[in-house]
């Protein structure tokens, strides 16, 4: 790997960001997560003429510089030039000139100070002729003191696999995935984490193997992309899911509150049922299930259950109804990535599908097994274990 150092003035860097010649979107780090005080300290350092750490970029095949390390610094500089950050002139050690600039935005500065800021030089280290794992190793070493999520570390493995996941995440967000629609954002690359594991599950074709972060990292490191069938199916499922989630929010005026584990389970569920359910059917089912799950946590009012009191009717008919959500919640938090937890959540979603639509057209065998085993055990946890074993649930998806 070649590392070439160049000095670029802030004005040049800013223009290159605006023309997309500098790409801040790879999110090798953590999104824009710096606090306001930290951003102001960086601006203060530049105003004082102090040196800041170099920016490491990767030159891709289109000669665009993707930011490997230094995204927070560049985003802060961009934000200041866009008048999104004010100067804190009271930072120690006090500087009389900067003290006079306290509370000002860039556009409010005198022309000389603006010019001085724009002419400040930043060291850019450009990486070329690299093996896929080399930028990732450099990124890891540069950020070793910081706590990075597994997804953030994986995203530094430049190559086709990473690019596939980035494309899927971009598509998911463009379709409407955000905190308002599903309950959490892609902060710390949460979507990347879920989608990469989902694609990996589709590729290996089983739920019975625990997928570790090392497994996914090795997939990225190998630079062997997911098959086109896996990629297309994942993209279709993600779009179907978000369309149904948005419809659920709009129709019921109630925001979903998913986490990574529950989103993952819904995607696995849709692998089986996307072509057998209409978006409106999934929306109804998703709302009732997620609302009941929040009720089990004591986080919602029974009065907003549903127009037809569907949940109340099901609860009266099926004695294990409430237990489903208690167990699902538990296995979506503690040990959420364990294979047994994933299988239990998957069976619960399947059971809910069967009883919600009041018919056995989807899975006769599971319906009969659950009713039969539960009548003997009177314990849903034991029932799930026995049914999973008897049906070898998740051996093939």
TrEMBL record:
Superkingdom of origin organism: Bacteria
UniProt xrefs under InterPro entries: GmrSD_N
Residue ranges occupied by any GmrSD restriction endonucleases N-terminal domain in the UniProt entry: 10-157
Entry protein name: GmrSD restriction endonucleases N-terminal domain-containing protein
Organism (species): Amphibacillus marinus
């Amino acid at each position: 790997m070649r590392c070439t150092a160049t000095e670029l003035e802030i004005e040049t860097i800013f223009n290159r960001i605006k023309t997309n010649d500098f790409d801040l979107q790879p999110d090798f780090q953590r999104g824009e997560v710096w606090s306001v005080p930290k951003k102001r300290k960086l601006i203060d350092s530049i105003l004082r003429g102090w040196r800041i750490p170099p920016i490491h970029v990767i030159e891709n095949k289109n000669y665009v510089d993707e930011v490997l390390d230094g995204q927070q610094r560049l985003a802060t500089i961009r934000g200041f030039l866009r008048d999104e950050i004010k100067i804190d002139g009271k930072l120690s050690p006090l500087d009389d000139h900067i003290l006079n600039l306290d509370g000002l935005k860039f556009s409010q500065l005198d022309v000389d100070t603006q010019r001085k800021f724009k002419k400040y030089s930043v060291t850019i280290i450009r990486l070329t002729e690299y093996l896929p794992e080399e930028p990732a190793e450099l990124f890891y070493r540069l950020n070793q003191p910081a706590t990075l999520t597994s997804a953030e570390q994986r995203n530094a493995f430049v190559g086709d696999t990473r690019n596939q996941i980035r494309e899927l995440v971009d598509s998911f967000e463009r379709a409407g995935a955000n905190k308002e629609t599903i309950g959490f954002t892609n902060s710390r690359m949460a979507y990347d984490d879920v989608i990469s594991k989902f694609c990996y599950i589709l590729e290996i074709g089983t739920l019975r193997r625990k997928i570790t972060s090392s497994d996914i990292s090795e997939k990225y490191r190998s630079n062997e992309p997911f098959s086109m069938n896996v990629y297309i199916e994942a993209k279709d499922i993600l779009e179907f899911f978000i369309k149904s989630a948005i419809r659920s929010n709009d129709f019921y005026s109630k925001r979903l509150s998913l986490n990574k584990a529950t989103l993952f389970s819904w995607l696995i569920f849709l692998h089986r049922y996307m072509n057998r359910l209409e978006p409106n059917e999934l929306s109804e089912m998703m709302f009732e299930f997620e609302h009941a799950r929040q009720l089990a946590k004591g986080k919602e009012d029974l009065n907003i259950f549903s127009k037809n009191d569907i949940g109340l009717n099901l609860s009266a008919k099926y004695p294990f109804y409430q237990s489903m959500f208690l167990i699902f919640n538990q296995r979506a938090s503690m040990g959420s990535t364990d294979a047994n937890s994933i299988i239990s959540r998957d069976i619960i979603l399947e059971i809910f599908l069967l009883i919600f639509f009041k018919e056995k057209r989807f899975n006769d065998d599971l319906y009969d097994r659950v009713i039969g085993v539960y009548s003997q055990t009177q314990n849903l946890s034991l029932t799930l274990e026995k049914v999973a074993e008897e049906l070898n649930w998740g051996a093939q998806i």
